[in-house]
């Protein structure tokens, strides 16, 4: 139960008085602790209408009472300890300018539950790129590990479902590297195959046919850079957005190169792309092996490359999962449901609904 009060409000129960949430079985050993809230940060941590506070209590089963500049946390010892650590970490995040929301509260709790070496502040407070409207930062532990891998390796594969930020974060790292003069150009590429469509059957010039496939990359660029500067940078060759076929025969030096939708490459195309790597360059390959659109049952280069390159020095494979999906919460559950369905098909299990219908017919 959450209580929020201000000094002088006599209608609010005293924080030391027992509440419904404090009434436990005689065998329980409730704990209580207090966290001092910085007046300049309290509103950011509590959230509008105490939404962040309510999210924290829902996640941890602890009772939270705020009066003046003090938050009292009571409940079972593990819940009190966890809530105290989360609140202290949220205060540090707010001090660094990280926006606190119910979603980030949930992610902070999940990061602490993983018992890893990183705190929520270290994960959610990592600055990737300053842009119009705020700072781009990782929003999950998986995204933080992915960003760190890009810093630490020359070639990184970002594998995972839609909505995990694998392409967006890679592009943010590319723009940051260009700003810092770590590279002299950014090259963004995609295979021009999607949803079974073939370019030869589409109307228009080659540019008009290719443009829709590259549009998501343009959209991300406009989100990260001055839109008026992008055409000038593209005209100067500082930024290049092109189909994968345009990479053949080139050596790409001093570049940050991103191959998006890599599940739609053939093994031959993947080898061709990776061997374009030149001196002073970095490559990030992103894709989702559950979304292959190659025609005629062709093998995906993204599926076979891991078996070929696993263990090769300076190459890293980052796995993002449904826990890293930053979209509607239902998207993560949809991803999990499809993964379970595909696992059943690979095992040869019969679909549950069909089995149930056959059983009903026998009766």
Automatic annotation (TrEMBL):
<keyword id="KW-0547">Nucleotide-binding</keyword>
<feature type="region of interest" description="Disordered">
    <location>
        <begin position="1"/>
        <end position="33"/>
    </location>
</feature>
<comment type="similarity">
    <text>Belongs to the PhoH family.</text>
</comment>
<protein>
    <recommendedName>
        <fullName>PhoH-like protein</fullName>
    </recommendedName>
</protein>
<dbReference type="Pfam" id="PF02562">
    <property type="entry name" value="PhoH"/>
</dbReference>
<keyword id="KW-0963">Cytoplasm</keyword>
<dbReference type="InterPro" id="IPR003714">
    <property type="entry name" value="PhoH"/>
</dbReference>
<feature type="domain" description="PhoH-like protein">
    <location>
        <begin position="135"/>
        <end position="338"/>
    </location>
</feature>
<keyword id="KW-0067">ATP-binding</keyword>
<dbReference type="InterPro" id="IPR036612">
    <property type="entry name" value="KH_dom_type_1_sf"/>
</dbReference>
<dbReference type="InterPro" id="IPR027417">
    <property type="entry name" value="P-loop_NTPase"/>
</dbReference>
<dbReference type="InterPro" id="IPR051451">
    <property type="entry name" value="PhoH2-like"/>
</dbReference>
